[in-house]
Design a protein that fits this description.
heterodimer, A: mainly alpha, 49 helices, B: about 300 residues, alpha+beta
Chain lengths: ~950, ~300
């Protein structure tokens, strides 16, 4: 700057005094030419003191010479500039003042005034500077210095903390010089002024008008810091939207440092370029201003870089602030993104921890419980043992959120463990009552009702005045109810309903009172309570269920019409309870056995069909309606209904229930098989025309079942059907039928493939039991008893028909016996034996199994009666009988009862039903051996 | 004799391995400053013949002499700032690209034989060319350029940008799995916020398209949080995130996002599109009080 200023002065002087380029030292004499040449040379060489001395002598000696006045204009300017450059502002001001007085029309008055004001400014004579800058603006409004004078005036007002004047000055500046390079700085100071005056929005609006790109970025770092201050203030005022606006103007430290470094390099290069350039005297003032601005910008940039370096974890803190704002305005995904970045980039451990904690809070608010558990595990791995965070309650809080997540995900095994750990690890946890409640709740949900009851009872003792009491008072009788303790639960439910009538659980508590009565077979009170309950809670989710239970209670009381009415009140919106109610109602209709009852039954199921045209229950509903029609003799109507339903739904592979309908259809043609065949043929023709393979297969199976053929012929028929239809076109029932038929036919693998398909395509079918039972049988044959037992368990658990349940129980007994689990096997064999629905061929086999269990445990004496029961009770089953005789004889031999053994073999040999069996040879050999 | 002298001068600068000849006019590409182990000179590149670079070097008398320089002896080639490269670099519209495209391509093709010589800014130029092709939606050509850079460029910065741009193109071509191989687990450059915004959008869309909605959400919202004004990221990304939020059945966030669009961007096209989209979820949004489906 100094150099530029001097050059300008010298350039002017050179037009007055001829200059010798070699003069650069002290004057050889004191002539005006010599003094001038000396001043100029020293000035050019940067020796401003010597230059000032020469110019001072020149003005002192010749300053009043009339002939030199025109030249003195430049000399006084140069003298002032030399002193200015020396930082000797007092003398500079004197010289400039003389210049102004002597040369009222001088060309450089605006610059000299600006320099004088600048000197005042530097000397902290702010009032003097303001007055002089104002003169520049007033006297030279079009001067290039007026813009800088206006800006510098604002800077002084800022220093003087004259806020009102400052704001006016800056606003005037922005209005007067909208294209000024100084606008960003002016806006920044304006923003700071607004901020200091508490006008956050206005402050932010100024910052938002600052350019984000381009060359004029000197303000950037300060704008960033101010934006953070605005954000913090807005956050404290809970104005989160404004805080977010402010924070999101802020750039990361890396971005700012990159920009500032580039800026600094550019400014320094520009300054160096400027200083290298030869000066055009006409541009001197502009250069002076440019130089001052560049130096100011370089200072700012250096200071900004240093400030950035000095702030600890600038970015982490910023991201965390942003996250907190988003969290506070319920924009949780945005908060998660921000907090995740804190996790990734923060270097300050406390900010990192805070970000992690808030991330978990955000996940909790979003109910992202799976993610929460993962994050909580990470958090606890890092901070779980940190005493500071434990004492601050943050670790216990995270551990609680983690445990509560399991409750929310209905992972009660995990929640029970986690709650137990919380109670153990944090005895003073502020959420302890809730934790204990959750522990009891988890136990209840795990059907560990005794534990749950104990926990809830302990809770009641520990926290009798806690606000969660109503929760526990509800869940305690619930646990008792499901534990079968209706007697204790009932008054507790009554008490709850009475004490907490406004609670969300109150209606359910009243409902449970009725259910307790129902469970205790107090059907009358139960029915009455339920009818009152449904009249008061029409919108409750238990409404349908309550009506069904009311119907059941009324039916049990013999109040059949009322029961019927209750069942039929279940609305369509209460599905699946509506269909359940109708099925219960069927029992009532049948019990009533009146035409009206059957008409009502028909109407009820027809209504169901209308209300649920696409329900999987449609087939069964139609069957019930048709059945009712048949009872009241409306045969034609029943036929039409069945035929239309079969045609409409019969090709729907996913729906079951066609077989009972087809069987009932058959009954609608008593003594008229031709009419039935005609009806079926029509169905077949239409199905063929429509490529309805599922329906065609169903009709084929029905006709095969109806044919009075022997087992072999049926087996062959099943083989033909199986060969005719691709497996993927068959419904569950057909798959089960063909699978069974093929396995019984000896084509075990082929048959099992039908069950595999059934299990894959119809995982909720009612025919799963058949599939599992047949698979279990196959495994039993293979000797894989573990798999056989598992499959038999599944078959028993899903058994739809009692006979199949017994079959499954028998297979399981066989598997258990082979696995050495004789007690379990004995129990299952006895179950199969005692049931009337057990297929009879299985019973002698069960007896063989029971005997084998005894023998396996070394008790041959106890085995013998089971064998004897076989040839006494099940003589027709010769395979079992022949084995029973041989085993029985062998058992007698084992217990050394030779006579009984001989009698047993003789009896066996004499039985006509066993003649020709190869086992007789074995009996003869043993007999001979015994007799010798 | 004069010609011989010129050759001797050249010999001083470069170990000449092959015969030299005079050139009567400017040819090849240059002038560049060639720094060899034993000196430097202003040259024009003529051809690269295996391990020998042939250049025209201007002699003191102004004539051009063709000399050969073994590649092993080349320290660097300094290419002066090329105005066309800077114009191409700044070409941000298809019109501007159209103006510079052909001359720029000719320059790249001219430099292609010398691409591996130290200091030749070939890959920088190829990267700029790829960007211009992307701007014109000429994705196949752009992919070729970027793949070349990824495979051959020495500067890791060029490789990284080219690779990311490949990912961006693959995502735009709906080759989501391939795109994710590149874009997955990668930090995007924060010194180019516009490019970074494109990358976040591309990765989010790719993840959403392959059903990874939870991961997609993070990428959709990243620009919303940190660079909301770049490319109108906030309103654009909020709209784009809605299907993923719905796929996760996060109806609270769907409703809140719609509410933000209405509050902050009431008259923006994204808000209208979001409302149209929301019609299909009236039932689910009905339970969220923060947003009411318009017209219901």
């Amino acid at each position: 700057m100094r150099r530029l200023a001097v050059i300008f002065g010298i350039a002017l002087l050179s037009s007055v005094f001829p200059v010798s380029p070699v003069m650069a030292q002290a004057p050889a004499d004191d002539s005006p030419d010599a003094l001038y040449a000396s001043g100029l040379a020293n000035f050019n060489a940067g020796r401003f003191a010597e230059a000032a001395a020469a110019f001072q002598q020149l003005t002192s000696v010749f300053g009043n010479e009339p002939s030199m006045q025109s030249a003195m204009e430049g000399v006084f300017y140069a003298l002032g500039s030399a002193y200015f450059n020396l930082g000797n502002y007092g003398e500079a001001l004197t010289a400039y003042d003389e210049y102004l007085k002597r040369f009222p029309k001088a060309e450089l008055r605006d610059e000299v005034l600006f320099r004088m004001a600048s000197a005042n400014f530097i000397q902290e004579d702010y009032d003097g500077a303001l007055v002089t800058f104002k003169r520049v603006m007033d006297e030279f409004p079009n001067s290039a210095f007026a813009e800088d004078a206006a800006f510098q005036s604002a800077l002084i007002l800022r220093i003087q903390e004259k806020t009102a004047d400052l704001m006016a000055a800056l606003e005037n500046f922005i209005a007067a010089y909208p294209n000024s390079e100084l606008i960003p700085q002016a806006r920044l100071y304006l923003a700071r002024g607004y901020f200091d005056g508490g006008k956050l929005m206005e402050a932010l609006e100024q910052i938002e008008q600052l350019p984000l790109t381009g060359n004029s970025l000197d303000h950037l770092v300060y704008a960033n810091f101010l934006a953070i201050e605005i954000g913090d203030a807005a956050f404290d005022e809970t104005n989160y939207d404004l805080a977010l606006r402010a924070y999101r103007r802020v750039r990361t430290r890396a971005a700012l440092t990159r920009i500032q470094t580039r800026l600094l390099a550019e400014r320094e290069a520009a300054l160096a370029d400027l200083q290298k350039q030869r000066m055009d005297p006409k541009q001197a003032a502009a250069r002076f201003r440019a130089e001052r601005r560049l130096q100011s910008a370089i200072g700012l940039a250096k200071d900004a870089v240093k400030r950035l370096e000095d702030i600890p974890d600038y970015d982490g803190g910023l991201f965390h602030r942003i996250g907190r704002c988003f969290f506070s305005v319920d924009r949780f995904w945005e908060a998660i993104v921000a907090f995740s970045r804190v996790q990734k980039e923060a270097t300050d451990p406390s900010i990192k921890e805070a970000g992690h904690y808030d991330l978990i809070l955000s996940l909790n608010r979003l109910r992202r419980f799976e993610d929460l558990v993962e994050e909580a595990d990470r958090y606890l791995a890092v901070y779980g043992k940190n005493q500071t965070y434990i004492e601050r309650g943050r670790v216990p809080s995270v551990a609680f959120m983690r445990a509560e997540s399991y409750i929310n995900r209905e992972m009660f095994e995990e929640s029970e463990v986690a709650m137990g750990e919380l109670l153990r690890d944090y005895p003073d946890h502020p959420q302890r009552p809730r934790i204990m409640f959750y522990q009891g709740l988890s136990q209840a949900m795990l059907e560990r009702f005794d534990d749950a009851i104990a926990t809830f009872e302990a809770w009641m003792k520990a926290y009798p005045d806690n606000s969660m009491q109503s929760e526990v008072l509800y869940w305690l009788p619930i646990a008792r109810f499901f534990n079968g303790d209706y007697e204790t639960a009932l008054p507790e439910f009554q008490s709850y309903a009475s004490n907490f009538p406004e609670s969300v659980y109150a209606p359910e508590a009243e409902y449970r009172v009725a259910l307790c009565n129902y469970a205790m077979e107090n059907f009358g009170p139960a029915a009455d309570e339920l009818l009152v309950w449904v009249s008061r809670h029409k919108d409750h989710s238990f409404y349908g269920e309550a009506l069904v239970t009311a119907g059941d209670a009324l039916a049990a009381e013999g109040r059949l019409e009322e029961a019927q009415a209750a069942y039929l009140r279940v609305p369509a919106t209460a599905e699946p309870f509506q269909f359940m109610a109708l099925k219960q109602a069927v029992k009532v209709f049948r019990a009533l056995d009146t035409k009206d009852a059957y008409l009502a039954m028909k109407a009820a199921f027809e209504r169901y069909l209308r209300e649920h045209p696409d329900s999987p229950n449609s087939v069964e509903a139609a069957y019930q309606a048709g059945w009712a029609l048949r009872q009241i003799g409306q045969i034609e109507d029943a036929r039409r209904l069945y035929l239309s339903v079969i045609e409409r739904y019969g090709n729907n592979r996913a729906w079951d229930g066609l077989s009972p309908m087809l069987d009932d259809l058959r009954k609608l043609y008593p003594g008229d098989p031709e009419a039935l065949n005609e009806a079926l043929e029509k169905l077949v023709r239409n199905a063929r025309a429509g490529n309805q393979y599922t329906l065609l297969a169903r009709l084929s199976v029905a006709q095969l079942r109806w044919s009075k053929k022997d087992q072999e012929a049926i087996s062959d028929g099943a083989d033909r059907i199986a060969s005719s239809f691709p497996m993927e076109t068959l419904d569950a029932e057909t798959l089960a039928f063909l699978g069974s038929a093929l396995t019984q036919r000896g084509e075990v693998l082929r048959g099992l493939s039908y069950f595999d398909r059934l299990l894959a395509d119809f995982p909720r079918s009612r025919y799963l039991d058949v599939a599992y039972a047949r698979q279990a049988e196959a495994k039993l044959s293979e000797g894989d008893f573990v798999a056989a037992k598992e499959l038999a368990d599944k078959a028993a658990a899903r058994a739809y028909e009692p006979a199949l349940l017994m079959e499954a129980v028998f297979i399981r007994a066989e598997a258990e016996r082979n696995l050495g689990k004789f007690d379990a096997a004995t129990e299952d064999y006895n179950t199969a034996l005692s049931s009337r629905v057990t297929p009879r061929p299985l019973k002698p086999r069960a007896l063989l199994g029971l005997a084998a269990c005894q023998e396996a445990q070394g008790d041959f004496r106890k085995a013998i009666p089971f064998y004897q029961r076989i040839y006494v009770l099940y003589a027709a089953y010769t395979d079992a009988v022949v084995q029973a005789y041989l085993k029985s004889g062998e058992a007698f031999e084992k217990i050394k009862d030779k006579e009984s053994a001989i009698n047993t073999y003789n009896e066996m040999l004499q039985l006509e039903s066993l003649s020709g069996r190869p086992e007789l040879d074995e009996a003869r050999v043993r007999l001979a051996k015994l007799e010798t | 004799m004069k010609s011989r002298y010129s050759i001797l001068v050249a010999l001083c600068l470069f170990p000449l391995l092959a015969g030299a000849q005079t050139a009567t006019s400017q040819r090849g590409i240059g002038p560049f400053t060639l720094q060899a182990r034993n000196g430097s000179a202003e040259v024009r590149l003529i051809r690269l013949d295996r391990d020998m670079l042939w250049v025209d070097q201007q002699s003191r008398d102004g004539r051009f002499i063709e000399v050969g320089v073994p590649r092993a002896n080349i320290v660097s080639i300094t290419v002066p700032p090329m105005q066309i490269l800077e114009v191409a670099r700044r070409a941000s519209t298809t019109q501007l690209v159209a103006q510079v495209e052909q001359p720029f391509k000719r320059l790249i093709d001219a430099l292609r034989p010398y691409r591996e010589l130290p200091g030749i800014p070939f890959y920088d130029m190829e990267l700029v060319q790829g960007r211009m092709l992307m701007l014109q939606n000429r994705y196949t050509e752009a992919l070729t350029a970027f793949s070349d850079i990824v495979a051959n460029a020495g500067d890791p910065a060029f490789k990284q940008e080219a690779n990311l741009r490949k990912g961006l193109i693959l995502a735009r071509q709906e080759k989501y799995d391939e795109a994710l191989v590149i874009l997955e687990n990668t930090d995007f450059p924060d010194d180019d916020p516009v490019f970074s915004d494109d990358l976040y959008a591309a990765r989010a869309n790719a993840k959403a398209a392959v059903g990874r909605h939870r991961d997609a959400i993070s990428d959709f919202f990243y620009p919303v949080v940190f660079a909301p004004k770049i490319n109108r990221a906030e309103q654009r990304s909020l709209l784009a995130a809605l299907p993923s939020l719905a796929a996760m059945e996060d109806w609270f966030s769907v409703a809140r996002t719609l509410q933000v669009l209405h509050t902050e961007f009431a008259n923006e096209p994204e808000t209208a599109k979001a409302d149209e989209w929301a019609q299909q979820y009236q039932k689910q949004l009905g339970i969220e009080e923060t947003y009411q489906v318009p017209g219901t």
